User: Fold this.
Amino acid sequence: MTPNIQTDARSNLIGSAWMIGAMACFALEDAFLKAAATALPIWQILVLFGTGGAVIFACVAGARGTRLFQSDVMSPAMKIRAVFEILGRLFYVLAITLTPLSSATVILQATPLVVVASAALLFGETVGWRRWSAIFVGLIGVVVIIQPTGDSFTLLSLLAVLGMLGFAGRDLASRAAPASLGTEVLGFYGFVCVIIAGFAFRFWEQVPAAPLEIYTSISLACAVGLGTVAYSSLMKAMRTGEVSAVTPFRYSRLLFGVALGVIFFGERLDQTMWLGSGLIVASGLYILWRGRRA
Assistant:
C-alpha cells in the first residue's frame, strides 16, 4: 500500500469518526430539547437555544479574529438560507417535541434525497434514471412512515416533513453562499435564525414565558453545548475525509435517534417504521454509491 493510499484511508477513518460523533450529538440535542418541552413553551425553547448557540459561535469567531458582520452576509444566497433555516428549525423542533422522536429522526434522513433531486433541477447537476428511481423509493419510505391514509395520521405527522424540506433548502442555499463565510459565521447566523423562529412562533403559540427550573436549564444547556459540538464536528468530518466516504455515516443519526426515543421516551417501533426507515436509508446509500462511481 502506498503512503498516499494509507493517508487517504486514515483520513477517511478519522472523518467517519467525526461524522458519527456529530450525529450522536445531534440526536442527543434533539432528546434534550424534547425533554425541555415538558416544562417550557416551544417558542421559549427556540429563543433560549438559539441565543446560547449564537453566543458560543460569536465567541469562537472573536477568538479567531473573524468578523461576523461583513457584506457577504447580506448576499441573496444567505438571505434564502436564512429563510429555509428558520422554517427547518421551527418545524423540526415542533416535530421532535410534539411527535415521536424516532419518527422525526427517520424522516429527517430523507434530506439528502431532496438535496440531490433539487440540485439536479436547480443547478443542472446530472442525475441518471437510477438515482431518480432511488429518490422516488426514498420518498415512498417517507410516505410509509407518515401513513397519510392511516387512522393514526394527523397534521402533526407533516411537521417532520416540513422541517426536512427546510433543512434541504438550507443545504442547497449553503452551496451558493459566498466561500468567504467560515463555519463560525454560518453557525452564528444559523442560531440567530433559531431566535427569529422562536419569536415568530410566539405570536402563534400565545403562551407566556415559563420560569426556568434547574432540570430544564440543564437540558437546554446540554442541547446548546451538544448542538455546537455537533455542528463543528460535522464541518470537521467533511473537511477531513472524502465526502463520499464520510457522508454515509450521516445515517448513524437514525440509530441514535431511534434508540433514544425507545429508551428514554418509551416509543415503540412498528413494521411500517422499519419498512420506511429501510427504504430511506437504502435509497440514500445507493445514491451516494452511484455518485461516487460517477
